[in-house]
Each structure stands twice: as structure tokens, then as C-alpha cells.
Write a structure and sequence with these properties.
CATH topology of the largest domain in chain B: Alpha-Beta Plaits
CATH architecture of the largest domain in chain B: 2-Layer Sandwich
Chains: A alpha+beta, B alpha+beta, C mainly alpha
Shape of chain C: globular
Strand content of chain B: 5-15%
Number of helices of chain C: 12
Oligomer: heterotrimer
Largest sheet of chain C: none
Order of helices and strands of chain B: HEHEEHEEHH
Number of strands of chain B: 5
Distance between the termini of chain C: 23 Å
Helix content of chain C: 55-70%
Number of strands of chain C: 0
């Protein structure tokens, strides 16, 4: 296992190097991450992420309220893929209590989760280009994201922090307008993807800024437990939707998008490819959705998972989101440990950053797509 | 190197073509204070008490289910049992919207389905009090009338029930008599129906 | 060649030279301000339209007065001088950035007979003065005593020094062709725009000019996603505004030089000369704006590589070819 060298001690008599605090208030740390950088000119000798500025004690909150009351928290851990977290939590509890979910609800969950993955990747695309200094793709991505949020809003009632899942289904049924809007969006977005490729992917400056920058090889990625698009960009084909299918993901045909190199460009390509795969899944789900109830008829009034340990994981937009639950059979969990991808990803920074330029820091930090509240849950 | 420069230059031109082509298209932003957007039908905002047709008003019976389920502790409900009524009525329904996370759990647990969402969307305020919503406000003037009517209804119900009960006894009596006299099954059926209505 | 001295001599319309200087300075300052206001408005509108937004719409017709309102706000803001700065450098930097502008503008021939003053070496003087900008940026960055500002300043110096070379190398072929260093004479000598015979020189000049004015995609000295605001991180109020004014006026100057050297200056059919001149200048500025709102930013070392490994050799080849063709 590779370990970061400790480069963060001040060397007496060293006048050539200096320390720079990037963050917690900095335009490109996406919130309140603080990076302590050891620099020689523009070259980075050492980096140390300092986390905790956005800590909201989600795990502790889970221990102080019953299972249902934790539901609104879930979409606030990673606010960009809130739906996936929200539904994932419901699925975890359902698995622990063995609640059967109606078919229609499962399909709705897949559609909503994939739409949410699209919004998350779109936001990433926009802000990533903003980090690299390109303003306009940001606005285009947000425009497309708004259209998606409108679709999600029409069924969940919220645009960001959805509290849509319920134990045993979802809180509201979808109508044909929603399904048609989702299908139409897929057609529309395929065209837009070409435009993004023309504007961003093929751009020579973008390629130079991202190719060979921030290489996170398969070895390092696996050592650290990197997951999601960052892992797949290193060439490791691992996707929980495929490898450990949850819900009804095993019914849909889609590919695990991988890329070679593990650099920022590979991560970009993986996310762009994943958007396309999400469109495929949505189209299949919209085509195959059955009629029926959306909430299981027999959900126990008191949510009391059997005493013991339960684990469930879903593939969020950022990677492997795991929930480890210890229950003593009461209304309140003893412990709910949330395994979030961003926390792992930011932990690789002391290894990945040294040797790069200051401008690369921004490119790398953007490409791993961190969400601060998810680091500090 | 030279080739790459040319390809690079071409890629830049292609990018400019994309951005320039957007100049001619209509803007997608909406001019907010002048243009108002219609909220989706599922839109979640501060909760409100919605009218239940049979009551002619809200139907909050102070069951405290929403208060208990609320993860943010932002609901405060008080109620009383009006004189001569069996059901309770809310006398205070306050929501501190600044704390609310719009999760919708209160709607799910409401036994009378009298909670719904408000359609407002530009609530901004300068003080915390601005977000303290009194949900009973819009129903207060009607409350006396509603109570009177409910009381009457309850009294009527009680009366029909009593009548039905007496009918049932009467029917039973009649049945006994019929068993004795071997007549009037139709009358007994009638009595059974009205008894069922009374129980419902 | 007609002697431009014989054309309108602005100074001579006044008897008292002091009044003449005051009037000229006033006119130039007025132009700088109005030009910057209009350019900022244009930039906001262009970027907004490219991004499917409306841009400023509220203040004045089409939001034309929006920038004026912003300037009023900037003027009204408190000028904060942080404790830790090197005061003399910190205070003089905005002045240094602003001072050469009037001198530079006064060298530009706007029309065949509309020159503030012209002499034999305006081109050299102009390119030399525009190098002063980098001193202002470095003073600002060093004086601010802030790591981000210093990084921005260091980047700016390296960038400006690197890009001055291809810029000059792109100008020399034109000088050789016209055998003059006077902007007025070069522009007059163009019976056809020189861009037709020197397209490569124009492209190199334009790229270098974009880099010289620190415009995106070469805006690394003030790369906001890396360095907050770069060299002007510690400046507030109108001190920041002055840097902004300087940036936009520099854009006009480099584009005006491009117009005079490559696009035939004021020459054009039907419309009066100065109208053609401004159409060309603002057209080039619009292209710069499209650059800014389309491309991501280069990295510092890539910027250097681009200048030294691509632009300088290309410019040298172009120069060599020009010399050979001229000698034939």
C-alpha cells in the first residue's frame, strides 16, 4: 500500500518553498474543503486535505431519531445525487426488514435515480469547466440540468433534496406526462451530448489541461478504495449496478463505461459515457414500466429492523455508497455508518497532487467530483 | 507537433461554432419578478390545512401524529374537545418553516388527510417570526360555524345510531315474533340495513 | 509618403499649449471611460447571449447604463488598504496601470487626417509603452504581500515577457514591407489589407495580443478558479476599477494596432474612415470576447510552451519567408 510521504513539516532554513492554504474559502474547492499545499513556485511538493468544515453529524443524527425521521437527512449527505442516497437508504431498510417493493415502484426508482445521476454528472461537467476557466459550458450544463430538475420536480416536488422514497416504495405515483418527459429528454440530450463533445471533449486546451494530469492508476485506486467513475477511469470495470445488482438493475442492458489512464481526461470520458448509459437505462425503464401500486401494502407501522448487522450499498453518482446498520431491534439505530465515496477520493490527494502544478490541483480536485457534506457527514 | 497544432486550431474553431450558434437562439432564463413560473403539481412548500369537503373546513383532530413524526420538530399543535363533541378540534397549528425540511412525512401520517402543501414560493423574510406560519389563520372565522354543524352532525349521528340500535332491538323483537308467527322477513331485512348504516 | 504632420494637428487648434494638453487629456480620459463602459456592457451582452441568458436589461435601454451604475457603486466603495501590504508599491500600482493608457491612445491614427500627434516611430513607442503594463501588475502583486497575488504577478511577468517576442516578430514583416515605423504611414501604405499577404503574422499577433492583455484563455495571472483574483486580489473599490479600465483600454489598443497593421486601418468603402476604424477594432474585440467565453484556460507551463515552441518558430519562419520574398 502506498502511503503519502509526510512533506508537511516546515524545514528550518528553507526559503525556497512555502505553504499555501487553498480554502476553506476558495472558488474551486467546491465548498469548504481546505487544502494545505506545500509549494515550490508553482510546483506542489505536498498536499494535505483538511476536512470537517462542513460537518453536520448525519451519522450521529441517525442515532437520535427513528428510521423514518432520518429519511430527509439522506438526500442532504450528497446533495447532488440526493435521490440515489434517499432511495438507497430506503432499500437498505427494506432489505433489513424484508419488505417487498411493488414492481412499479422499482421502475420509478430506477428512472428517478438515473435522472438524478444525470443531473449530478451535468453539474460536474459544468463546474469542472468552470474550474478550468471555461464559462459557457457551465451555463449549458446548468440549462440541461434545470430541464431535468423540472422533470424530477413534477413528481417529487423538490429540485435538490428529494425526500421521495418511502420504506416499501415511493411517496407519489408518476403519470404519463412524467414518463413522456423523461423519454423526450433522452432524445434531446443525446444531441446535446454531441455538442458537449464538440465544445469540451475535442477542445485542444481541455485535452492538454486534463490528459496525463492527476493519474490515479488501478493499483492506487484499489488500494485506497476509490470507486465510481474515478475507479472506472483507471480501467477497473466495477459498477455496483452490474456487479451486485440491487433493485431491478439486473433487468436493464447497459455497459460499464471504463477508460484507460486514470487521468482527468479518462474521468471526463467515463462520466460522459455514463450519461449516455443512464439515458439507455431510462429509456428501457420508461418502456417497461408496469401498472400497479407504488407503495407496498403491508409496511409495518413501526420500523424496527431485526437486531444485528445489516449492510447495503448502491452506486451513487460518485461511487460506492454503503450503509452499515447496527440495530438492536428498537426504533432507533445503534449505529448507522455511511461509507461515502468522496471521503475516500479526497484521501488520495496527498498521493496524487505532489509533482503537479498549482493549476492542476484545481483540475484534479474538480475531476474527482467531491461533495463536501459527503466527506464530512 | 505541427499536425497537432492544426488539429488543435480546428477544434477551437469547432468550439467557437458551438458557442456562436447559441447567440442566435432565444435565452432560456426567465425574468423572475416579471415572469412567474408555475410550480409543478407536486411542489412542496410550507404545509397548510386543506379543506375536507364533508367538514367544510380543515379536519385537524389534534392527533399529534405529525408532531411526533416531524424530524425537525417544527410543528406545534394544540387542540381541545369542544363542548358536546366527541372529536377534538385543533386550536393551534403552528409551523416554524425555517426549520422545515419539506420531507412530507407529516402528510403521510395524517389520518384525516387534511395536510397539503402551499403553492407560494417567494417567501423571504427578515425575522424568524416571518417563517412562523399559523395554519389555522384562514379557517378561524369559519370555526364556530363548523363546530356548530359538527356538533349537530354528531348529535344526529348519535340519534340515528340510537334509533338504529332501538330499531335493531325492535327488529330482533320482530324476528322473535316472526319466528313465532312465521311472517315479515322483509321487515327484518330493512331493519338490518339501517343498522349497518348506523354503524358506518 | 504624405507627412502626417501636415494633417490635422489637434494641438494647433488651441493657442495656449496648456489648454491644448488639458483638452487632449480630457478627451482621452473621456474616451477611456466611455469605451470601457461600453465594452464591459458589450462583453456582458455577448457572453449572456452565448450562454442563452439576457445579460443586463434593467438599467437604461438594453441595460446600457448598467456599467455606469456599477462604476458609481465602485466609486462609492471604501478603499481598503490591508495592513500587511507594501504601501508605496500597493498604492502606485493602479496608477502605473492607468498612466500609460492616455499616452498610448494618443498615438493611434483614427482616420487619414485625425491624429493626435504622429512621428516616425509610433509603432515602437506604442509597443514599448504597452510593456509598462507588466510593471504595474508586478507592483500590484508584489506590493499586495499576498501569496495568491504574488503568484499572479509572477505568472504575468513570465507571460508578458514570453509573448512580447512573438508579438514583435509578427510585426516586423509589416515594418519590412512598408519600410516605416509610423502607424499612420503603415496604414496609409495598405492599398489592400496586409492580412491577405500576412495571415500567419496576423494570427500570431492576435494570439500574442490576447496573451499580452491577459485575456482568456491566457488569463492565468488572474485565474479566478486558481488564484482567486490574482494580482488584484487585495484591491477594492475604484483601485480595482482602474485595473479593469486598463484591461479594457489595452484591448482597444492592441486591436487598434492590429487594425492599423493588418486590416488597413480606416480604409473602407462608403462609410467615413473613423467609422471603419472602430468597426474593425470592435470586431476584433468581439472575437476576443468569443475566445474568452468559449475556451478553458491554459496552464502556466503550457502557455510558455505555446509561446516558445510554436509561436516564436512560426513567427521566425514567417519573417524569413517575408525577407526572402521581399528580396526577390
Amino acid at each position: 500500500m502506498m502511503r503519502p510521504k509526510s512533506t508537511m513539516e516546515l524545514v528550518p532554513g528553507d526559503d525556497e518553498t512555502y505553504y499555501l492554504n487553498m480554502g476553506p474559502q476558495h472558488p474551486s474547492t467546491h465548498g469548504v474543503l481546505r487544502l494545505r499545499l506545500h509549494l515550490e513556485g508553482e510546483r506542489i511538493l505536498g498536499a494535505e486535505p483538511v476536512i470537517g468544515y462542513g460537518h453536520r453529524a448525519h451519522e450521529k443524527m441517525a442515532e437520535n431519531r427513528d428510521y423514518l425521521q432520518f429519511l430527509p437527512n439522506t438526500s442532504r449527505i450528497d446533495y447532488l445525487s440526493g435521490m440515489i442516497y434517499n432511495l438507497g437508504y430506503c432499500q437498505a431498510i427494506e432489505k433489513a426488514m424484508q419488505i417487498e417493493v411493488p414492481e412499479r415502484a422499482e421502475y420509478i426508482r430506477v428512472i428517478c435515480a438515473e435522472l438524478n445521476r444525470l443531473t449530478s454528472h451535468l453539474l460536474w461537467l459544468g463546474t469542472y469547466l468552470l474550474d478550468l476557466g471555461g464559462f459557457t459550458p457551465f451555463l449549458y450544463a446548468f440549462d440541461d440540468r434545470e430541464k431535468l430538475l423540472d422533470i424530477l420536480d413534477s413528481v417529487t416536488g423538490s429540485r435538490l433534496t428529494y425526500c421521495y422514497g418511502r420504506f416499501g416504495g415511493v411517496s407519489m405515483d408518476v403519470d404519463d406526462t412524467f414518463l413522456r418527459a423523461a423519454a423526450d429528454y433522452c432524445t434531446y440530450f443525446r444531441k446535446r451530448l454531441d455538442e458537449y463533445h464538440a465544445l469540451v471533449t475535442h477542445n485542444i486546451i481541455f485535452r492538454h489541461r486534463t490528459k496525463g494530469v492527476g493519474v490515479m492508476g488501478p493499483e492506487l485506486a484499489l488500494d485506497y478504495g476509490v470507486s465510481g467513475p474515478c475507479l472506472r477511469a483507471a480501467g477497473v470495470a466495477r459498477d455496483l449496478r452490474k456487479d451486485e445488482p440491487y433493485g431491478i438493475y439486473d433487468r436493464f442492458a447497459f455497459d460499464i463505461v471504463t477508460a484507460e489512464g486514470g487521468d482527468c481526461f479518462a474521468r471526463h470520458m467515463v462520466r460522459m459515457g455514463e450519461m449516455e448509459q443512464s439515458l439507455n437505462i431510462i429509456e428501457q425503464a420508461v418502456g417497461g414500466i408496469p401498472d400497479g401500486p407504488v407503495l407496498a401494502p403491508k409496511v409495518p407501522k413501526r420500523i424496527r429492523p431485526p437486531a444485528g448487522e445489516h449492510y447495503f450499498a448502491v452506486e451513487s453518482a460518485r461511487g460506492h455508497f454503503g450503509m452499515y446498520l447496527r440495530s438492536d431491534g428498537t426504533d432507533v439505530p445503534v449505529r448507522l455508518k455511511l461509507r461515502t465515496p468522496s471521503f475516500v477520493h479526497v484521501a488520495t490527494m496527498p498521493v496524487v497532487l505532489p509533482g503537479t502544478m498549482l493549476a492542476d490541483t484545481v483540475a484534479i480536485l474538480g475531476s474527482i467530483d467531491i461533495v463536501i457534506p459527503e466527506i464530512d457527514r | 507537433m505541427f499536425r497537432e497544432t492544426l488539429i488543435g486550431a480546428w477544434s477551437l474553431l469547432v468550439g467557437m461554432k458551438v458557442t456562436l450558434s447559441h447567440i442566435l437562439r432565444a435565452p432560456v432564463t426567465s425574468q423572475y419578478p416579471r415572469e412567474r413560473i408555475e410550480m409543478s403539481k407536486a411542489y412542496r412548500n410550507v404545509i397548510r390545512l386543506i379543506e375536507i369537503e364533508e367538514i367544510g373546513s380543515h379536519d385537524c383532530i389534534d392527533c399529534q401524529a405529525c408532531v411526533r413524526v416531524c424530524p425537525s420538530d417544527c410543528i406545534n399543535v394544540e387542540g381541545e374537545r369542544p363542548d358536546g363533541m366527541r372529536k377534538k378540534r385543533a386550536t393551534l397549528f403552528e409551523v416554524e418553516f425555517a426549520l422545515c425540511s419539506e420531507c412530507g412525512l407529516c402528510l403521510d401520517v395524517c389520518p384525516t388527510n387534511t395536510l397539503g402543501y402551499s403553492r407560494e414560493y417567494d417567501q423571504a423574510g427578515f425575522r424568524r417570526d416571518d417563517f412562523l406560519y399559523d395554519l389555522l389563520d384562514e379557517w378561524r372565522d369559519k370555526e364556530e360555524g363548523v363546530r356548530t354543524r359538527l356538533r349537530e352532525e354528531e348529535a344526529q349521528k348519535a340519534a340515528t345510531k340510537a334509533a338504529a340500535a332501538s330499531k335493531v332491538t325492535a327488529a330482533r323483537k320482530a324476528k322473535d315474533e316472526a319466528a313465532a308467527k312465521e311472517e315479515g322477513p322483509a321487515a327484518a331485512g330493512d331493519a338490518g340495513n339501517s343498522a349497518a348504516e348506523g354503524e358506518a | 509618403m504624405t507627412a502626417p504632420h501636415a494633417t490635422t494637428q489637434f494641438f494647433h487648434t488651441f493657442d495656449n499649449p496648456w489648454i491644448a494638453i488639458a483638452a487632449a487629456t480630457g478627451a482621452l480620459l473621456g474616451f477611456i471611460t466611455i469605451n470601457a463602459l461600453w465594452l464591459i456592457w458589450l462583453e456582458r451582452k455577448v457572453s449572456a447571449r452565448m450562454q442563452r441568458r439576457y445579460g443586463p436589461t434593467e438599467v437604461g435601454p438594453f441595460g446600457l447604463l448598467q456599467t455606469l451604475a456599477d462604476v458609481v457603486k465602485l466609486v462609492g466603495k471604501e478603499l481598503i488598504t490591508p495592513d500587511h501590504v507594501h504601501r508605496p508599491l500597493y498604492l502606485i500600482a493602479p496608477i502605473l496601470a492607468f498612466a500609460p493608457l492616455a499616452a498610448l491612445l494618443s498615438l493611434l491614427p483614427i482616420d487619414a487626417d485625425w491624429v493626435f500627434h504622429d512621428f516616425d516611430i509610433t509603432l515602437v513607442l506604442l509597443l514599448a509603452f504597452s510593456g509598462l503594463n507588466v510593471i504595474a501588475i508586478f507592483a500590484a502583486g508584489w506590493g499586495s504581500n499576498n501569496k495568491y497575488a504574488l503568484l499572479g504577478a509572477v505568472r504575468a511577468v513570465a507571460q508578458n515577457i514570453s509573448y512580447e517576442i512573438p508579438l514583435l516578430l509578427a510585426v516586423i514583416p509589416i515594418v519590412l514591407m512598408t519600410r516605416s515605423l509610423s502607424l499612420h504611414e503603415i496604414a496609409s501604405a495598405q492599398s489592400y489589407p496586409f492580412i491577405l499577404v500576412q495571415p500567419l503574422a496576423f494570427i500570431i499577433y492576435f494570439i500574442s495580443a490576447t496573451a499580452e492583455t491577459n485575456r482568456a484563455p491566457f488569463d492565468i495571472p488572474e485565474a479566478e478558479s486558481e488564484l482567486i483574483a490574482g494580482f488584484h486580489t487585495e484591491y477594492s473599490g475604484m483601485r480595482f476599477g482602474v485595473f479593469f479600465l486598463a484591461e479594457f483600454t489595452n484591448m482597444v489598443i492592441v486591436c487598434a494596432v492590429a487594425t492599423l497593421l493588418f486590416l488597413g486601418g480606416w480604409k473602407g468603402p462608403l462609410l467615413p474612415g473613423f467609422v471603419w476604424f472602430f468597426i474593425k477594432v470592435y470586431g476584433l474585440i468581439a472575437v476576443m470576447m468569443v475566445f474568452r467565453w468559449t475556451f478553458p484556460r491554459l496552464r502556466f507551463d503550457q502557455l510558455m510552451t505555446f509561446a516558445w515552441a510554436i509561436l516564436v518558430p512560426l513567427a521566425l519562419v514567417n519573417l524569413l519567408v517575408t525577407i526572402v520574398v521581399l528580396k526577390l
